[in-house]
Amino acid sequence: MRSLRALFSRLSTATETNLLPSSSPSHLHFSRSLFSSEQCLGDPAAEAAAHLESCADPEDLAQTHAHVLRAHLLRAPFHWNALMRCYLRLVRPRTSLLLYAQMSRSGTVPDCYTLPLALKAVALLFALPAGRQLHCTAVKLGLDKHEFTESGLISLYAKAGVFDWAMKVFDQNAQRKLGSWNAVISGLAQGGRLAEAVDMFVELRRSGLVPDDVTMVSVASACGGLGDLGMAQQVHKCLLQAGRSGRLDVMLSNSLVDMYAKCGRTDLAGKVFSRMASRDVSSWTAMIMGLAVHGEEVAALDFFRAMQQEGVRPNQVTFVGLLSACAHGGLVEEGINYLEAMAEKYSLEPTVAHYGCVVDMLGRVGRLVEARAVVERMPMEANVVIWGTLLGACEKHVNVEVGEWAARNLLELEPWNDGVYVVLSNIYAAAKKWGEVERIRRLMWERRVAKAPGYSSATVSA
């Protein structure tokens, strides 16, 4: 990823080619109508910033951006921040970061709101070197211990997987605020370090700070990932005792549904779901996914039908749950219909995850030739999960031809994977092709690939 210095050098060209639309008649009319002296009763720059706060259309944003640049309305950090925030809201992190570079080049000093916006853009781009430069800037300006900047740095390092740096930022401020705690807990939970996320939540409670809705969503996610029902019930009790409500109420309820479902208690997830005052697509999807994973495919499909009756539009994750349910239940025709309905009825483009579910669904029932045809017709390259799923199905149903094809493609992606050789050898053995079995073993020896020995471990609780 290019550093901020590289962004500086490319700024002029990028601004002309990516940020400024052509001066079409509609643009000129828009500029005059929005920023005319009759309508701008106060500061034109403030008027533009206020307009950006509610801007949700990319074309509208481009026109507004073009005007504020040409009219020299970017005068203070507040104006730059409004523009950066708008681009982030429309998921344009690269443009937002280019704006930060232009702001620095113009001589405008970033404030405590600018750096968190730039850090969020860097995190979305996974541009760790640029993030380190922003960290240095924060130290230089004395903003590194500001709540928003500190939490932004922690989130960036955690998302990049550099947890040591994240904890160093967290530990260096003894007067850390709740935002920093939330950034650490969320980063650990999203990074798969679930037990550590729960431990940090316990430390937060001991510190005397009161967790908010953001904290509880992250902790609920960690508890669900651990499958710790006891801890999950304690989190739920904590929420009930706090009597939380407000704009995150639906999100909190969704996190509880997901938490109980991941703990294997779809009955408790259903109770939380039934008591929700309002539900969104994530509420329904969490229930469908939970039921699908735990083999309750009929109930999952019933929930989808109820979701349709409620007029809630499904998203791509919903269809992953549906296709997974069909795969577990052997409902091949229903699964194919759902895959076709994604594009035809809901205008949703199937992803590699959806095709993977279909391959799994066909492989489970032995329809391996059709599964191969699905892989060959995919608009994207198959990943290791799909090849591994197909290879496992070939082992189950002893299909040598498709198994060899899947193994060959999987080895191109993971030549070091000893499991591919073992499964292919098992397929040959089941087909009584002992010469091929010997060939695979000899090939493993020549390529210095050794089968990893199996082992088991036991956890003893006091």
Automatic annotation (TrEMBL):
It holds the Pfam family PPR. InterPro entries: E_motif, PPR_At4g14850-like_plant, PPR_rpt, TPR-like_helical_dom_sf. The keyword Repeat applies. GO terms for molecular function: RNA binding. The keyword Repeat applies. Coiled coil: none annotated. PPR repeats lie at residues 76-110, 177-211, 249-279, 280-314. One of its GO terms (biological process) is RNA modification. Keywords: Repeat. NCBIfam families: PPR. PANTHER family: (WILD MALAYSIAN BANANA) HYPOTHETICAL PROTEIN, PENTATRICOPEPTIDE REPEAT-CONTAINING PROTEIN. This is Pentacotripeptide-repeat region of PRORP domain-containing protein. It comes from Ensete ventricosum (Abyssinian banana). The lineage of its organism: Eukaryota, Viridiplantae, Streptophyta, Embryophyta, Tracheophyta.
